[in-house]
Amino acid sequence: xxxxxxxxxxxxxxxxxxxxxxxxxxxxxxxxxxxxxxxxxxxxxxxxxxxxxxxxxxxxxxxxxxxxxxxxxxxxxxxxxxxxxxxxxxxxxxxxxxxxxxxxxxxxxxxxxxxxxxxxxxxxxxxxxxxxxxxxxxxxxxxxxxxxxxxxxxxxxxxxxxxxxxxxxxxxxxxxxxxxxxxxxxxxxxxx
Length: 192
Prior knowledge:
- Helix 1 packs parallel to helix 2 (46-52).
- By secondary structure, the chain is an alpha/beta fold.
- Strand 3 (54-60), helix 3 (67-76) and strand 4 form a beta-alpha-beta unit.
- It is 35% helix and 20% strand.
- It folds into 2 domains: 1-85, Aldolase class I (TIM Barrel, Alpha-Beta Barrel); 91-192, TIM Barrel (Alpha-Beta Barrel).
- The chain has 7 helices and 7 strands.
């Protein structure tokens, strides 16, 4: 899939991809578009991103007032519904919505800037989230985003991440395609 970081300049200081970029990507690939809305009040823009081609949408727990309503809105559009949580947000806050989530996106950096160092506590959060979901009989995909690279991708998978998102670790190299293959091989070597 293609992970698309949408930033509004308010929830996070930077500004990135808008709806026209998602529409253009959807016209040019059959890969699912995984849209990560790092925006205040994502419900204002959600229908437009879904119509643009988002197959998966993660909204930030910290940015949504009525999370149940937003998750229902995503699912009604037949997209996968996810919640992203910042590094300082405890995963236990998601207990009451676990059954309505397809995935949780654990931020392993503070959102809004590329190239940050991985915050190791994300690994423990992934393990706690996996245990919490299992204790409630919920099948939940765990994704880790931020600072993921050669030095920690295997640990992320071992901690329970079924999806790892790498940006700078791939695109800041001379051969992004080769780097992506290497990271994928490292991640898959951890899967038993």
